[in-house]
Amino acid sequence: MSLLPVIGVVAGSFLFLAALLKLSTRKSNGVEEPPAVSSKVPFIGHILGMMHHKVFYYQILRDRIKAPIFSVPILGKSIYVVTSPQLVSTVQRMTKTLAFEPVVAMASPRIAGCSAEAEKALQYNVDGKQGEKGYLRTFFTTMHPSLAPGPALDAMNRIMIQQIAKSADALASASMKRVNLCDWLRHELTMATTYSVYGPGNPMVDEKVERAFWDFERNLMMILLNIFPSFTARKGIAARRTVGKAFERYFENEEHTSGSALVKARYKHSREYGIPVSDIGAFETGGCLATLANTFPTAYWMLTYIYSHPKVLQECRDEVQRITTVTTAEDGSVLHSIDMTSIKASCPVITATLQEVLRHTAVGSTVRGVLEDTTLDGYILKKGNTLLTPANVIHTDPTLWGTDPTAFDHQRFLRVPGKKLPSATAFRAFGGGATLCPGRHFATTEVLATATVFIARFDMKPVFDNWPQPDRSSAQFWTQVLEPNREFEVKVSEKEGLLGQQKHKWEFKLSESEVVLAMAAEDLGEAGK
Q1: What contacts 176, CB < 8 A, 6 or more positions away?
Q2: Tens digits of residue pLDDT in 402-457
Q3: Cβ distance 355 to 48 under 8 Å?
Q4: Is the torsion defined by CA of 381, 30, 75, 395 positive or negative?
Q5: Domain 4-107+146-200+293-524 belongs to what topology?
Q6: Which residues hold heme (predicted)?
Q7: d(CA 280, CA 278)
């Protein structure tokens, strides 16, 4: 629920448009840039490697050079890749010279298809030379109160949880319980999320708008590349227009006044900087990328990892059972009541499992532009280049995660006395520092709510094949979480032990609480450590 997916998209644009970059030198006052990784094919070798291996190319280079930071030279320019959590902490403090706002300002107009007037507002003071003012430099601080633990976030969470509970009721009562897991989660979580953000006037309730958004998402790379877009990105641009117009009507009709504190804050912020309503509608297309594109894949992998490991499923069910209140009504029906606050506060196996799922499937990069020549770890980072911190590079480092970082260990993040955990900055699923995802609390609650509803109510098994594994070939440059298997079908049935003559009812709620589920170093107060 931030602009981080936009930043991930930008990484791809830097790579594919590298041929447009100007030449630069490799030294400045005798100080060298980070060690460069050579390619077998001169000039275009790295570009070919990136096109073939996509986001995983940096892992290949990491294993080859084994350095805390290295350079990927492309036609005279450098992409700096940080692999060390210690350096990540340093980079996050260097916001004046290593900034993400210019990167967002470059990508956002192309993604949203906004006007020149809106683009001008985005570009204003992106380098921060005029202090902390300007649309982008104040965007996150404006959004933060509505996404931080507290009443505004609780209000969104309650709507979202009730929508997921209704979806589960419908699934339980359906005569046919064979479903495409990807399609089901994508639709149901789209509705749960957008109702919680946009309120009763939610534009996504229109099937045409929902379908257009996912068409836009699938065609995003071609929109970004902007190579003969009227031909190569025609479908994506048409879909973007459909979604943008729907949100333009939403704001013109003042439907946002019945929406969440988040959408009200976004609208107010844009109007304060003179952005027309038509462009605010266009911006919401990008806003939906932030709120939707990563949550349903995460929920998909959370469920498939849990259900494909019987031991994990049983441990998670034991935790859910311990915090479930069961009462019997006069008519003999049984009410199962679950407070999602207790899941976050009292179910460490479930929350640790979510972190391990994200370690395996989160592949996004945080991207920063080098605004001035900057010294880092004894190396010079040259102005005009780009710095990346790819999550998958750090998440698969054997020096951080043990000799087999590809192994799935649902207790890896479990905090127990005497157990040493990796540095909190080594977990990069939500970025960090100035690029830390402000919507991580909402996103994790939504994934946990989805998982809890299934764990408590349903048994699930594949229809044909074995449980799917993450597919590396599906990862595009802008991907933050690996794509689900779109064809995977499951059989869903009431959990064993719930069948019988008694009628079972379910209540999922959220009590008032400022419990913080630590999903980033900043949540633990360890961002600079």
Answers
A1: none
A2: 989 999 999 999 998 888 888 899 999 999 998 899 999 999 999 999 999 999 99
A3: no
A4: negative
A5: Cytochrome p450 (1.10.630)
A6: 437
A7: 6
Low-confidence spans in the chain with pLDDT less than 50: 1-26, 527-529
Give residue 343's pLDDT.
Answer: 96
What DSSP string runs through 155-215? HHHHHHHHHHHHHHHHHHH-S--EEEHHHHHHHHHHHHHHHHHHGGG-GGGSHHHHHHHHH
Give the angle subtended at the CA of 357 by the CAs of 353 and 360, to the nearest 5°: 140
Q: Which residue has the tokens 């630069």?
A: 24
3-state secondary structure of 369: strand
Going from N- to C-terminal start, the domains of the chain cover 4-107+146-200+293-524
- Residue of 284, 278, 282, 289 whose CA lies nearest to 215: 289
CB 430 within 8 A of CB 522: no
146: closest CA among 438, 523, 436, 514? 438
């190396």: which residue's tokens?
Answer: 379
Residue 389: strand pairing partners: 366
Q: With b meaning 16 or more CB within 10 Å and e meaning fewer, what string describes 55-69?
A: bbbbbebbeebebbb
Task: Identify whether the C-beta of residue 368 lies closer than 8 Å to the C-beta of residue 98.
Answer: yes
Closest of 103, 7, 79 to residue 387, by C-alpha: 79
Cβ-proximal residues to 62 (8 Å cutoff; 6+ apart), any chain: 70, 81, 83, 393, 397
Centroid of chain to Cα 366: 11
β-pairing, 31-32 vs 69-74, is unpaired
Q: What percent of the chain has pLDDT over 90?
A: 74
* 437 annotated as a binding-site residue: yes
